[in-house]
Fold each of these.
Amino acid sequence: MTEKHSTKNMANFIKCDVLVIGGGIGGWSSAITAKETGRVEDVIIVEKSRSGRTGPSALVGGVFSTVLKEDDTDELLKFYATELSYLLDQDIQELIITRSPDVLKDLEKWGVKFLKKADGSYLTTYQRGQKSTLHLDGGGIPMMDALTGYGKKIGVKSVNWTTATDLIVDDGRVAGAVGINCRTGEFLVFKAKSTVLATGGTLFKTRQPGHRNTTGDGWAMAYRAGVELMGFDLSKSNVYGATLEVGPGNGLMLGQGAILRNNKMEEYAKDYPEMAKLNSPESHAPLMAMEAKRGNAPPVWLDLRHFNQEQVESIYKSVPLAAKRWEKLGFIKNRKFIKLCEYAPEGPRPGGGVFVKRDFSSRNMQGLFACGEAVANFQCGGSLNRAAVSGVIAGKAAAKWAEKTAQIDVNANGVESLKKRALAPLERQMGIDPENALIALQEAIHPYPVSILRNEKALKNALCEVERIRDTVIPYLRAYDPHYLRLVHELGNMALCAEMYLRHALARQESRQGALREDFPHTDNLNWLKWIFVKKDSQQQMKIWTEDIPIDRYKFKPKPEKRLHPFWQRVEELGYWRQSPEE
């Protein structure tokens, strides 16, 4: 048995009841809720940038897809189930749907404001297939300013500019985390009774504006700690400016009739009416990839020149920073769009995450909770509303766990090992620049046959390259200063997430929404109603396995059949693609 030593004399040691890692809407909803239960005293948020001013929450596209009391909850659950081709955890999603109206009230109590009509009802847009999509008043930054302001008022503490590098695991439970200050290089130890992962996913630092801090840190920390994760086979790509950083606000603009045109100036989405009617940016990525396959892209152009003054004003109201950016770059003049903007899909956005129970606690690791994008997309999803609702549930459960749990004296030797790992890149006299290594990682996973319209050969080639980066690049990354130290850890986390994504994508030998395989174009409900899991095994190897979805107990069930996926069926009808003879 490993000897334990007291942590009393550890430098930079911080103790709390509930530790929340991540300062977005999920993190602050979790922290505020935990504090307001009255069960705990000390609640701390750790954020690697400035809490409330980074990532998807602050730079959201001005809309908030939620559930109102008048909405048909069964209709919504059926929509979500079919949207994810019945891979959805309907038990968890039904809980999120039913809790959403109350959490919307919580958000407004905490100071979040939404645009409303003259009669006091919410201003809504049909977007991403959902009618109850509200407009944020001023966008994501005022929303997050409200949450951070309220949280600090009730006593939630935040530690900014600190990258959490690893979870502390002791006696089979999570007992906090360690991290580094991104400005000073100071090593910090956070000892907590319960820990909530509220970190974002990763886009591998691709073209989406303001999301370069979302690097899969929580997923990677959970994996290294031995936590079960799942769902990396799902990957949706948004679409953004190809050469210019414009946005956010794609959903808002598509919901009001934005047009995407190929290099022949054709409105190609009209060929896909079932996908186009969702007004979802993510549904456009495979269409763009197919246009490229046909020779009709790049470029693809975003056309907003037909927008009237009211539509343009809605952008200024809900995503003012994006509107000012459009204006600065010369796309808007006198409140009118005057020219086209080249657009393209971003890289893969894996939908993986921690596999949780109904209280959003980890299935196999005590003391760990998760919310938002830290949770597998099949269970929670990446929208603001789902992050907030899951944050509220996780915060309440984390506070309850902390109240009944005593602090444990963590293994000082284990923490010292984590410290050496965290600071090692600073001590290397020579090494590889993390930004050069990032380009190699992006080039491996961004091509369309890897990230959007997948095939086995491309996936295997990408996996070989990611393994090379893992084995011959990551161990030799050098940090020149604390900022570069953060970049080194981000790159290691992204490489780990890329490997999980590729192994999951290879394992799913069929096509479903967000997981299109050109070599397996059928949706197979006979053999593939399964979730794919990943966990580090006792030999430090990546273990992949599947578990049957408990579809028999769910409300909504697919037909027990194997059929050509609607996307492949449509492109075959259009004559753009043909099945191989063996199919």
Amino acid sequence: MTPVRKRAPFAPPDIAIHRDEDGTVRLHSRTPPVPHPETIVAHLDRWAAAEPDRTLIAERRGDGWREVSFAEAARMSRGIAAALLCRGTASVMALSENSVDQALLMLGAFRAGVPFCPVSPAYSLLSRDFAKLKHIVRLVRPGLVLAEGGDRFASALATVDFADAEIVDQVEGLAATEPGELPSVTGDMTAKILFTSGSTGTPKGVINTHRMLASNQAALAQVWTCLAERPPVLLDWLPWSHTFGGNQNLGLAISHGGTLYIDDGRPTPERIGRTVENLALVSPTLHFNVPRGLDMLLPYLEADTALRDRFFERLDFVFYAGATLPLSLWRRVEALGQAATGELPVLTTCYGTTETAPMALAAHLVLQETGVVGVPIPGVEAKLVPVGDKLQIALRGPNITPGYAGRPDLTAESFDAEGYFLTGDAVRLADPADPNAGIVFDGRLAEDFKLSTGTWVSVGALRVAIIAVCGAAVSDVVVAGHDRDAVGLLVFAKPGATAEAIRSGLRRHNAAQPASSTRIARALILDAPPDVEAGEITDKGYLNQRRVLERRAQQVARLFADPADADVIVM
């Protein structure tokens, strides 16, 4: 019997395509963008009037939650805005993790027209020299800094020169300020400065305007029809210092009358148990995660029928991003959802960057397996430009950044003559004859490399293929072999996995691969997990390939040594 698939809560795509003589492919949605407010604070006030008592944001307090309603958030953010204006604050920075107070401070800054800069907590808590934090502070020059959590930030605050910035650990005093008259905030004003991970150099400060955030949420409502059917409920851990969690997910609750429960767990062995504990308290309507997070969560859902059923009870879809979801994980999610509800669950994804606020492509079509990352959302134009034997995706629309704070040189380099943002990512059409079939992510151009034979290796696609065939034995792999004769792997094995199990998986992979660029010649199982402090795992929970290769150059040398080290798996 064919499994019943849950109805996808999406508007079907209607994509136009045009091919230039030079091989460039141009795509856009025929669905025009809808009118929308210039700032998402307008949505906050709308919901505060319509549903004043509905919870907007909540965080764990003891056995329950500290909850703030839409009406309370609107009132407190007005007070915070007045306090910032009275102080003449030019910009606001947050060092600590996701919290109710950080959300209120962000909304207050939005009302005041003051740029808000949430910084990865790792830069303050895990860094040894605070170099990235020093760079960000020099660029942003905050007038007020939120550092919640007592003495946790003492070392960073004592080491980094914050000049005359006011340091606060809560916003209650700010919120008590009499609001008075607040300024008019326009779409072109800076809402946030979000910093890229800086994994390959100094973090770049991406300017996010109010129009970028508001247009993204308007487009979401056009392609995700479920947002109009009921207010979304999220339990979410994704960090607000990144665009996925801070723009899309927090913005989703604010703009569409939803509730975001802050998950103080993480997809790490030490903190995944807290996420499971929180899921026992909240039944979400939407679930957002990265593949690593799903990989760590699924064993708990597979072992606990009650938790599984509660998770899928009201779920419209499971959304993954940040990396391609291995097919093995996809099938496990489907099996769990079908067991819980009798229907195959909907899985979906998108494509975007910090510079696109974040969604530029959305997979608002029925996906049956991993690969496709979406089609252009209403208002966004995508241009697929030939670069060697690949197509780089470039983007233009109301959600695209005007540039990088303090770096006009980088801004100029990042846009072409037509005003398209150059992403550095390669893509291809899933079906060249049907643009509605979607776009497939084809790797980061900067990650791909050549073998000594001159053959290109597509790192992203190869990594996904290896995890798909070896998923029971490996948690992730790093592809190596730049300027060498063959491809090798650094392997992060799952607990209990044996070298023979990994060898067997690689043998199955190689049997279907005729090309040297896709066959694996050697593999080395690493004896230490990815180091979060060293940047091998990002805040969003995915593996930083380049950083691992840089830090583990000695293991790369062992991988390719001749004669082969005894620990190296030679295929």
